[in-house]
Amino acid sequence: MGTVVSIHVRAGSAEPPALYLAIAEARARLHRADAVFSTWKTDSPVSRLRRGELMVDEAPPEVVDVLARCHEAREMSGGWFDPWAAAGGVDPTGLVKGWAAARALAALQDAGAAAGMVSAGGDVAVFGSPQPGRPWRIGVQNPFDRQTVAAVVNPLGAIATSGTYERGAHIYNPFTGRPATVVASATVTGPDLGLADALATALAAGGEEALPCIDSIDGYEALIIGSDGSLVCTASFPDAAGTSGVQPEVAAGRPAS
Length: 257
Prior knowledge:
It contains six helices and ten strands.
């Protein structure tokens, strides 16, 4: 998917052979997602769908599932996330990376691991606790200084960040078709990484105009870092207050090192 993916597992009572198989399954799910959804591979089902060579009902079942989720995300975001507004045909990229990472994480849970994290280019899904009594802490990268974090978050199961500081102008306003430049970065946390990924894309496109849409979705919270460095968030955004000096496990919005 053109990014770095890291997998972290806390075994607990799970047997090592089961975990090795689970990690292999997680990797297989990620490679499958890349093969099916890549817009860079000309022979992928999504590329063929975009060219009109394949109908949706002829595509692999994952495509049907993801496009249904894209419809839901478009409605929830007030149209700020709209894969059908992309040039060249439908492009579910803004949701599918998070969706794929969540599927990879599920393989670890099914194997009985005590805790796990999958970070796909900085979009992060977690379960369990990295240490007894300690929640996962995820840093939101400072878009103006990539060696620091702007906030540390106790994620609500998943956290996704979108912005232009890593890949340049790749997010577009679906209503105007012009590059979105209203915020430096947008972060959404909630129980499902696929939806959080899509909503972060919506927030990066719409900025504060899109923030009420995310605020109205039960279980999801958001943070915007403005082009002037200002921070605006929903009322219940789960920042890790009182954790100054504590290093997060990984930074959202960039690959883990």
